[in-house]
# Entry
Amino acid sequence: MNAPIYQLALGDDFANLAPEVQEYFSLAAGSGSYGVGEGIFDVVGCRQKWLRPLLALTGKEEAFFPDYGEGIPFRIENHAHVDPFGRPALTARREIYFPAGTRLFHDTTSALLPSPEDGSAHATTRLVDHVGRYRRLVTDLEVSVTAEGRLRGISRASRLLLGPVRIPLPAALDARAYAEQWWDEAEGKHRIQVKVIQPQVGVVLVYAGRFDYRLVPYLPGAAPGTTLPRYAEPDRWEKRL
# Structure
């Protein structure tokens, strides 16, 4: 069985995550199961009304969206697999149930394993996230473990892949995501908080809430080997980083 990509990236620090958070991030390709989370976002979407018309233009990308709400139900599926280019990966498919309709938000995080020429002493596994229906937005993901056993993630340099063109976003235009996930012992639920901040306009997207999580076995033939179920696949895979 393949190793979970977050364990590959964190190394020994993975053991410092709270046990429930370890379990959440322990899904590996070939395990025969996928993860399902269901809960409530206390807040989700874009708070800035003036920015929403611009985000509406990207709605078909299924990455950013113009809606905003409080107390919004959601569902997430996590599928561990190997992407078409041989990279260990985790695809997350989120359904957010706004009153006006359901929004989809999905991404694939792939692990870039060290090559032999990197040297064994200092080489580490990198995580790269391809976002949206067409995987046109790519960002480096830096993960760490807090003193409280939470998983913290920060997106770093981003690129847009538009046809054959690869456009690195300068720091002044790039939006960074700051995420933290933890186990709430008092509530007996998983908690998550994410903010996407663009230096010129402030918070572009926020979501924070709580959810229950469980593993579900794949139906026979639904995900043979280490592939991704068809309904969870993006419209387009992207090899470039």
About this structure: The longest strand covers residues 202-217. The mean pLDDT is 92. The chain is about 5% helix and 50% strand.
